[in-house]
Specification:
By secondary structure, this protein is an alpha+beta fold. The protein has three domains: 88 residues, Rossmann fold, CATH 3.40.50; 66 residues, Dna Ligase, domain 1 (2-Layer Sandwich), CATH 3.30.1490; 256 residues, 2-Layer Sandwich (D-amino Acid Aminotransferase, Chain A, domain 1). It has 13 helices and 21 strands. The strands form five sheets. Strands 9, 10, 11, 12, 15, 16, 17, 19 and 20 form a nine-stranded antiparallel sheet that branches. A hairpin with a 5-residue loop joins strand 9 and strand 10. It binds adenosine-5'-triphosphate and magnesium ion (MG).
């Protein structure tokens, strides 16, 4: 496989002959940021999604509403538009059609093969744990309930059963006893997007917090392709979706070399006020409120970079050369032992900007979306800087099936120093749908987290669901 996007020196004018064009498959809030960044460069921006007026379509030149799992529909749009880059934003895409389009010469970001492997938990686990050799919790695959029972016994209870193909936590369940295994198998099978019968079971990692490492494959100013590793993004979630993220994950005092603020970890006090669903957590971090040593923090960082780098190289590398471009959200679990020694475990990776990485809009010189656009167009990136500590907190809908919600209490939320708010413009709601994000910057991570939380909770309480 050869790299399909050459090092670029020029761009065209949108809507006219010679335009440079990107096609976004999926037009949610991540796509909206990608579209905005493409528009800033005068790149013609076309979006595709399963419904009308999704967030990214509202800032794009054109939009198509199709079922992206339908290969024929997908190919018809791509062959008509002939984009310079096809940028997947979601997993529910017909990846065989993407492989075919790549064969025809279209550039699928980061590469078609990587989009196919990363949506398949079994293929991805094999690639990461067995080929790249990165640490994961123990795992087994099973293709019927009996096999799964034996696999769960071997892994040990509690463990997590997941569908081979799914996202957003769909079809995953924690299993505590043997008599729950059949139900977990059925749930995974019913919710799976394909490969009906096969599931994966994983040992539970009682992590202290989670990290997303936004590894970036890109050209440098000399036209060489390499991988860069922005500072890890810390995040926490209690249910199936992420709730809060921050960057850097630990703030190191440059003068003393020590970490500045205490860790607010999984199940800790701050996490419990950020997310009311924390009541049912299976464990709580024993390191909540502790100040991580600078050495521990550095070790975590190094392990994050090493794991993300190894997996990305397997996904888009060929004989040492890197043959793909774009950002990857590598999800990692961090567990610190009693002596303060950290161990980072690989969870999964997605070849696109990551929900938790939206905090980079406030913290980095180039956001994850800006980096992605520059990288996939073949434009150089000379370096990535974190300019300030910051945090992001989701704004969720509490109601189902309401159209055109209104957003109130903005004056109070925006009155908090360092806060800004993203409202995605989603036309309708369902329970827990992400409608926006509160971002906060501060010279301290905890202060940023508290401000983002306050703003998000204010706005959540002020949503008008009338219709
Ligand atoms: N082995 C595990 N041990 C502990 N927690 C886990 C494990 N696997 C998953 N989780 C928890 O569940 C979350 C979602 O898991 P995973 O990333 O596999 O699901 P997903 O369906 O891909 O969700 P998403 O699309 O939101 O990332 C993780 O971020 C983590 O909080
Ligand atoms: Mg995940």
């Amino acid at each position: 496989m050869a790299l399909l996007m050459p090092f670029r020196d020029s761009l065209g004018t949108p809507l006219y002959e010679g335009s440079t064009k990107v096609l976004l498959l999926g037009a949610g809030e991540l796509g909206k940021e990608i579209a905005i960044e493409a528009q800033r460069l005068g790149v013609e921006t076309v979006t595709v999604d399963r419904y009308d007026n999704p967030p990214a379509a509202q800032v794009a030149h054109r939009h198509y509403t199709i079922d992206m799992r339908d290969g024929a529909a997908l190919k018809a749009v791509v062959r008509r538009e002939r984009p310079d880059a096809i940028i997947p934003e979601v997993e529910a895409i017909n990846t065989d059609a993407l492989l075919e389009l790549e064969e025809e010469g279209f550039f699928v970001v980061p590469r078609a093969r990587a989009t196919k492997i990363t949506m398949d938990r079994i293929a991805l686990r094999r690639l990461a744990a067995e080929e790249a050799g990165v640490p994961t919790t123990p795992y087994k695959f099973a293709s019927d309930p009996e096999e799964l029972e034996a696999a769960c016994e071997e892994i040990g209870f509690p463990c997590i059963v997941k569908a081979r193909m799914s996202s957003g936590g769909l079809g995953s369940s924690v299993v505590f006893r043997r008599d729950q295994v059949r139900d977990a198998y059925e749930t995974a099978r019913r919710k799976a997007r394909g490969y009906g019968g096969e599931v994966i079971v994983e040992g539970l990692c009682r992590f202290d917090f989670e990290i997303t490492e936004l590894a970036l494959a890109h050209y440098d100013p000399n036209g060489e392709v390499g991988i860069s590793f922005p500072k890890p993004v810390g995040h926490l979630r209690s249910g199936s979706h992420y709730h809060v993220s921050w960057q850097p994950f630990v703030l190191i005092d440059e003068e003393t070399g020590a970490s500045k603020s205490p860790l607010q970890a999984f199940g800790g006090q701050l996490h419990m006020s950020e997310d009311v669903t924390t009541r049912d957590l299976l464990w709580r971090s024993e390191h909540d409120g502790e100040v991580l040593s600078a050495e521990t923090a550095r070790e975590v960082e190094e392990q994050c970079y090493e794991i993300a780098g190894k997996v990305v190289r397997k996904l888009i590398g060929e004989g040492g050369a890197i043959e793909g471009l774009g950002i990857f959200g590598c999800e990692l679990f961090v567990k610190v032992d009693e002596g303060g020694k950290p161990k980072v475990y690989f969870n999964e990776i997605s070849p696109r900007p990551h929900d938790t990485g939206m905090v980079t809009i406030a913290t980095q010189d180039l956001s994850e979306a800006a980096l992605h656009v520059r990288a996939v167009l073949g434009l150089p990136i000379a370096g990535i800087k974190v300019l300030t500590p910051g945090a992001a907190h989701v704004i969720l809908s509490s109601e189902d099936s309401k159209w055109a919600p209104g957003y109130g209490r903005l004056s109070r939320a925006l009155g908090i120093p360092g806060v800004r708010v993203l409202l995605f413009g989603k036309p309708s709601t369902y329970k827990e749908r992400r409608l926006g994000l509160a971002l906060a910057i501060s010279d301290d991570i905890l202060d940023a987290r508290r401000k983002a939380m306050e703003a998000a909770h204010l706005i959540e309480g002020g949503i008008r669901y009338g219709r």
